[in-house]
Amino acid sequence: MLALSGLACTSVAPREEGSLPQVTLTKTPPAVRAAIEAAAAGSRIQKINSGHRFEGRVYQVYLAATPGPRLLTVSPTGAILEDGAVIPFSEMPPAVQAAAREAVSAPWQVCRKSLTHPQPRYLIDYLIGKDEPVFAIIEADGFIRAVFGYADDDPD
Length: 156
Hints:
By secondary structure, the chain is mainly beta. Helices cover 13% and strands 40% of the residues. It has one domain (22-149): Nuclear Transport Factor 2, Chain: A, CATH 3.10.450.
């Protein structure tokens, strides 16, 4: 496998290419809006993207939070599928860093530590080519649990 081309996973800046469609809080379903507002608990909502995963439509919510930014994935029913704190790559366990270097051959966008699961789990968002956003879920011991692609409104 190829090594990753970037090790800086500390920004949640909007992507120019490969970005998912943005929506406003008022344009989300009521259950999604309520879940976002509850999870934000006063934190500033930086942006909300709408996309699809294998289980259907999801909303990616970027929050300006303390001690660091958070990224939520919310289902249309308002369920929080993922809640992750953005962390630098260097703060991930060595086994996760090694697994990421082996498994991913694309520039990283954001590295997160999941706050949703009781066992430590790490998520890395990256781009394949210039416009295909994907994320990998890696356990603390380096086991790659899954890799998911996003699709905006493309039904295939």
